Each structure stands twice: as structure tokens, then as C-alpha cells.
Amino acid sequence: MDEKLKIGIVGLGTVGQGVVKVLSKFDDIEIVAVAVKNLTKKRDVQISNLTSDIYELVNNPEIDVIVEVAGGLGVYEYLRTAILNKKHIVTANKELLARYGSELFDLARQNNVVIMYEAAVAGGIPIIYPIKTSLSANSFVGVAGILNGTTNYILTKMEEENLSYEDCLLKAQQLGYAETDPVGDVEGYDAMYKIAILSNIVFNKRIDLSKIYHEGITNISSLDLKLADEFGYKIKLVAMAKKMSDLSGNDCLDIRVHPVLVSKDESLADIKNATNAVKLKGFPVGEVMFVGAGAGEFPTTSSVVGDILTIKSEISKQDKVLPMTVCHHTDYANQIHIDDTQNCYYLRINASNTPGTIGKIGLACGKFNINLSCILQKGVNEDRSATIIVITEECFERDINNMIKEFEETSEVRVLNRIRVM
Amino acid sequence: MDEKLKIGIVGLGTVGQGVVKVLSKFDDIEIVAVAVKNLTKKRDVQISNLTSDIYELVNNPEIDVIVEVAGGLGVYEYLRTAILNKKHIVTANKELLARYGSELFDLARQNNVVIMYEAAVAGGIPIIYPIKTSLSANSFVGVAGILNGTTNYILTKMEEENLSYEDCLLKAQQLGYAETDPVGDVEGYDAMYKIAILSNIVFNKRIDLSKIYHEGITNISSLDLKLADEFGYKIKLVAMAKKMSDLSGNDCLDIRVHPVLVSKDESLADIKNATNAVKLKGFPVGEVMFVGAGAGEFPTTSSVVGDILTIKSEISKQDKVLPMTVCHHTDYANQIHIDDTQNCYYLRINASNTPGTIGKIGLACGKFNINLSCILQKGVNEDRSATIIVITEECFERDINNMIKEFEETSEVRVLNRIRVM
After folding, report:
1. Which of A170-179, A362-371, B243-252 has the lowest mean pLDDT?
2. How far apart are CA B93 and CA B90, in angstroms?
3. Which residue of B has its CA nearest to A128?
4. Which of A93, A101, A199 has the alpha carbon at shortest distance from A145?
5. Quick check: is A139 in a domain?
6. Which chain A positions have a beta carbon within 8 Å of B302's beta carbon?
7. Which residues of A touch B298 (CB under 8 A)?
8. Which CATH number goes with the domain that contains A407?
9. Mean pLDDT over all residues of chain B?
10. Same domain, yes or no, for A304 and A214?
11. Do A137 and B285 touch (CB under 8 A)?
């Protein structure tokens, strides 16, 4: 405990600078070197030992821990080398862990080092390590969360200020919540990486990213938000994973990211703006929820430095391994396809206002075994068409999609939006 | 890791039985013996080795960990002996830790064992260990929580069903949320123990329980809840602690438990029924909140078993200490007296409806340097008196109390209730 922990930091962007600032208060941590792309760029923090060669860090025998806050998949080889050189890893890199976590965790186990990644999911919210420690008695059945602050900010603004998706995206970009190319956030990739990482530790299974269904928020209109509100719902981009049985009765995981109508009674409905929340359900704990800032320089830094201090606290021991943090599972989950899942659906339908149209909708529902739970038509539009909102009972995704397809073949009924209901 | 962890359990009530049930799924934990008061009582679980002598457990060299789920202060001597015998402790005993934690933690440090107590605060919610690990980078400025499920249940029912305190207490007793003698819950003792324990680790200071101000919910009427609602507030029993400066400019802690008006925009306002919530504020994390079941057989068991598994995972190491869990601070906090704190206040006033009464209230406020933020009188009562609601700006507790005392000396104005505003 008396010796300093020596770290090398890869990346000196927003989070990297936060980490340097916060670590300045901890005498027992020494930043040996920081690797950056651009050596001459102006930064908030002064670093005496900057390098543009990451290998200088990962091959430096003096360094105990590599703190990777650069992001992107390009760091994979460097982290591999660091692990082979017996260095512990602290990383905030969700895409890397979601795609290549299995390889890296295997390698870490073989080399008796750990990979800590509290900052990779839900920024400053402690969730990874609590699942591995305080909650380790549990057998979880589900996890659901608002894991992407950008999209939650956009949906909140659309709802509260009755603005279009495009206007709110622009606002988010101006505030720095969204990037110039927003695809990673608004199409659900970022939340998908995070729910993959969470599922991995919640269910102790490896996750195949390509089998996770994801859908973004670009089709959500402020009209959908208003109509959902009338039925008692908010619309949120929720990342979720639950244990279930597949059609053959085998255990499987249903993992996905898409917009959902969340009942206003549900705690996730109250999560506003860029805030993140993670809700776990399991036995014996029941339901437990964690709420906080999902991104940003300092919240993310809280998790990165928390991981560094946890390693520091444990590394003083002779065997140098943190058993709770080692990845012990190697088998892949049986992941269910979205078509085989059952959900309730909100449908916003545009129909010609001719006699029998509602009847046709009803008949189609019957044909595909879909029960309706709510139906609402409020008057007739200027072009004599009608907006009809339908909320179904639980039915198969496959059936609802087939029904929508059948509507598309007629000229009278158009499903303008279909959103699942949580 | 291959060897079994051997535990002795003290207490086989609701939580004790939950622990036995959940541990049956973990092959690497062996329950060596369980100590109970009554050997012949019928129980849900079968235990082969029951004893009525706790010393048989704490003196048994085979046992690694004593799991104390009996509660009460009577276990102190047994736990002392256990620690002297180099046994780790897992306990859910909030009163014991709040009163004698310092002595026990000192002894544990001297004997190279740890005391884990995740279940002592907020039942199933992971909060103690996350503060010590994932959040260890933070310097906290405040913690606030709904830490007592019984009172939160009563306040929720009073508000939602417009019932009296007495009726809701009875309901809570029938449901098993409140004990026959409800004083520990409704007078704020339970929440006081928990905020003492939380303050201890959040601020790294020892806490003098006798300096914590506590006030229960027995004076809250459904009328107060209704009036608060009109102003945009809920009334909650909140346990809170924050860093501040005392009147001489020295650092101090303001720790207290009492009912408060919580703005409906505040996340704590949404916490209903027996649910608990803990909100932390610090740097770099910002705000982070944890929500879940604060009591009950299984949620509490989740935390107890989580602690056991954390010890199991770490005890395999040669030095057998979990550095993150050791209590490293020994100095007492400078705790501010409630009289020296500044708050906003809700006052429910009964005044004679004579000309000049409002003027007298206003003058008294002026005399004691109290600015008003809201005032409301709706008509006149049947007895010609008037109910007047006042919400003040921030002022000293001492001043508001002196003003109330002055009113008591007149016959025209009576403060029927005074509740602080968060």
C-alpha cells in the first residue's frame, strides 16, 4: 500500500484530462506517461511525459496499469500487448469490450491481470463492480436501462418543447451532447454496446453483438410523444436484456435496444435529459435502480479513477489478482431473435376515412392473432384521412410485422410508426 | 478459492432464514452452525447444527466469518470476541454500528479482519461497498436518502388515500411493515442510525450519534400533505448529511433526520411506499442515486450474501485483508447543531380571523429576520379562525423557533406544524 501505483494513460481528450486532474489529488498514484495523437495540441492539463507512441507505455516495465480513454477499436493491439506484459487495464471503451471483450478477458485471465471498465457503461454510475460484488448473491432475470444520454436528451426536449427530432438533434449537437455524426447514438449502437457488456456480467454469458436487435430514435415524431402521453406513456430508448425460454423451451436471452412506450408509473419514465438509469431485477434483491450522469468529463472520470483506486487497493497483495473482477464465464448465451419475441405495440396508423376501415384493421388483427388493448381516432384530418392509434396486447413481433406488410399492400391503411410498449 | 468458506450465523429470524435459503445455492459456503434464542421454534429452514450459545460460534476455530442477523445491542460482546478470534464479520445491525462501530472497526483493524455491513443501510441496495470502491475517487459534499421504508409507506398512504397517520400506521403494522412498537421507525431512530453509518463512510469521519438531530412523522397530518401538494411538494422523511462551514468558518457536517417538503421535481419525491433511495453528491461524479427495497427477507439477504461472497472471493489471498473495506479514519466529525442551520420552513398557522393578524405574522417575521416566500389563506374556518400557510426563505432554525415561541405567548396565532423544506 505504501508504494505508488504507476499508470500510463492512453488518450488525453475530455475524459483523459479529467482523469489527470482528479488523480492530482491522489499521492499514491503516479502518471508515468500519457500517449496522445497530437503532441503539440493545447490542453487543460500539463503533462511532462507525453508520447505519440502507445507502445512506449504498454512495453514500459515500470507501468502497472494502462488506463485507456482514447476510444475506438484501434487500441486493441496495444491493450493486447499491455496484457501480455502483465499490466492491468482500466478502460472506458464500450465498443472495444462489446466486440472483443471475450478475447481480452481470456488473455487477461491467462496473464493474471484484470480489466476494469466501470466507465464503459452508464458513465459515473457504479454498476459493473456492484454487480460483481454487493449483488453477487443474485440470479438476475432482467436488466433495462436508459444508457444513452444523447437520445434521452433529444426525446425529452421533443416532448417538453414539442420540437422535431431534427431541431432537438441540432440542439444536442450545439450543447456537445451529440457528435457531428450522430449515428452511433441515434441509431442505438452506443446503447447496444453497453447492454452487451451489462448482459455479459448480469447473466454470466458471452454475448454475440450481431444477434442484438437495435433500432434508433430517428423515426420518433413529437406527435408520437404526444399520443403516447395521452395513453399514459413516455417514449424512451431503452436497452434491455431478459432471461426467457426460446420457442423450443431452452433458456435464452432476449437482448435489444429500441424505443419503447414506458408507462408513466415506471421509474424509467422519470429519467430526463442526459441522465442514465439502470434497473436490475433478480433474486433475492428484487428490483434495484441506479441513476446518474451517463457521460461527461467528470462523471466518467469518477468511474475511471474508482477503478484505478480499486486496483491500487488490491495490487498490494501478493497474488495481485482481484477474484471478483476476473471474468469466469466463457460460454455464449443463446440469444433469441427479435422476430420470436412477444411484445405489446403502439401503432400510429393513417387510414382513409371510408366506411369499414376500422373493420379492416380489426380483421387483419384477428388474422394475425393480435388482440387490441386500446384504439383511438380523434376526428378526421384535412385530407379526409384519419389518424388511428392502436395499442395491442402481447403478440409476436413476426405477426405484427406481417400484418403491417399486408396493410402496405392495400391503399387504405398505412402504419406510419410502430413502437413497442414496455 | 477451492476451499469452502465456513460461516456461523447468529440469528434465524426473517433475514437469517433468507440467508440460509440463498446460501444453499452456493457450494463454496458452508454453514457450520447457527445460534438462535429458541431451539425448538418452527422455522422455514432445516439446520442440523443449531445452538443457543453464541460463544460456540465465535469461539469455534473452524469458522471464518460470523454473520450477525440477530439485531440489537446484545450481540456486541459476542462480535468483539469473534473479532479477537480473527473472524470476519458480516452484519445487518445498524444500531450496533451507529453506536459502537468505532470500537468494532478499531478492533477489526487491529486483528486484520473486516466488518462488512451492506445490509445495514437501505436493505438490498448496494451502497456501502460501491462508495468504498467504484466511487472512491470522489470527495462528497452531501448524501440524502429515504432510508426508512415504514415511514415512507405511511406518508405515501396518507397522501394517496387521504388517511390519518394513525390509520396508515395500523395498515403498515398489519402488512408487517411496522412493528407493534413503532417508535424506532416513526420517530426517526432507524433512519438516524443509517445516516450515521452512511456519513461515516461518505465523509470519512466518525459520527457522534447524540449530535444528530432527529424528528419523526407523528406530527404530519394528511392536511399538511394536501397543502404541501398545492405548493408543488411532497412530504418525506429524509435523512441527510452535508458538508458545510460552522459559524466560526470551520468545516463541519450537518446531519439530521426529519420530515421535509421535497419539490416534486426532485427525484426523492417520486420514491413511494416502502422503497428506499440514496442520493449522493460529490466531485467528480456529480449526482448519483440508488433505489430499491430497503427491507424485507430477500432484499436484505442479497446484501448479506453479497458481503459473504465478497469476503470469500478475497479471503483466498494470503494476507486475508480487503483494503477497501477497512475503516481508515479515526477522527470525529465536527457536527453542527440543528439550531445553527439555515432552512426554508413550511408553517401551518391557525390564527384568529381578526383585522391585523396577517400583519402581526409579518411583523414577527421581520423581527426575526425571516423573509416569506409564499403565504396562503383560503377562506375562514367554521370557528372563525383561519388556516394560514407560510413558506419562508432560508433562515436560522434558532430564529424560526424563537418566533414560534413568541407566537405561543399571544392568543391570536398558533403554529400547528412546522416542516423544513428541502
Report:
1. B243-252
2. 9
3. B134
4. A199
5. yes
6. 135, 137-138, 284-286
7. 283-286
8. 3.30.70.260
9. 92
10. no
11. no
CB-based contact A129 B134, cutoff 8 Å: yes
Q: How far is CA A143 from the centre of its chain?
A: 11
Structural domain for A269, as ranges: 129-293
Question: Which residues from chain A sit within 8 angstroms of residue B125, using beta carbons?
Answer: 288
pLDDT at A353: 80
Please answer whether residues A294 and A275 qualify as being in contact, where contact means their C-beta atoms are separated by less than 8 angstroms: yes
The minimal CB distance from B323 to the residues A1, A126, A135 is found for A1
Q: Which residues of B are catalytic?
A: 194
Cα–chain center distance at A71: 16
Domain membership flag for residue B336: no
- Shared domain for B285 and B161, answered yes or no, is yes
Q: What is the pLDDT of residue B331?
A: 82
Is the predicted pLDDT of residue B247 greater than 80, yes or no? no
From B18, B283, B313, residue closest to A284, measured CB to CB: B18
Rounded average pLDDT over A364-387: 88
| Element spanning A19, H or E | helix A14-23
Residues A273 and A409 in one domain: no
Q: Over 60: is that where the pLDDT of A2 sits?
A: no
User: Phi/psi at A260 (nearest 5 deg)?
Assistant: -140, 155
Judge if A234 and A317 occupy the same domain.
Answer: no
The residue with greater pLDDT, B413 or B153, is B153
User: pLDDT tens for residues B83-130?
Assistant: 999 999 999 999 999 999 999 999 998 998 999 999 999 999 999 999
Number of domains in chain B: 3
A288 in the same domain as A146: yes
Task: Check whether A318 has a pLDDT greater than 60.
Answer: no
C-alpha torsion sign, points A144, A150, A153, A154:
negative
CATH classification of the domain holding A304: 3.40.50.720
Give the model's pLDDT for residue A411.
79
Confidence of residue B321 (pLDDT cuts 50, 70, 90): very low
Q: Is residue B416 part of a domain?
A: yes
Which is catalytic among the residues A87, A194, A236, A281?
A194
Same domain, A226 and A145: yes
Cβ neighbourhood burial of B37 (10 Å; 0-12, 13-18, 19+): exposed
- Whether residue B180 lies inside any domain: the answer is yes
Place of cell 399492400: A409
> Per-residue pLDDT averaged across B20-44, rounded?
94
Q: How confident is the model at residue B382 (pLDDT cuts 50, 70, 90)?
A: confident
Mean pLDDT on A202-207: 92
Which residues, at least 6 apart from A363, have a Cβ–Cβ distance to it below 8 Å?
Answer: none
Q: What is the DSSP letter of A119?
A: G
Q: How far is A339 from chain B (nearest CA, A)?
A: 33
- As given in the structure block, the three cell numbers for residue A387 are 389518424
Give the domain CATH number at A259.
Answer: 3.30.360.10
Contact A124 B288 (CB under 8 A): yes
Q: What is the ipTM of this complex?
A: 0.87
The chain A residue lying nearest B24, using CA atoms, is A137
Minimum CA–CA partner of A124 in chain B? B285
How much is the pLDDT for A356?
A: 81
Claim to verify: residue B85 and residue B228 sit in the same structural domain? no
Q: Are residues B139 and B251 both part of a single domain?
A: yes
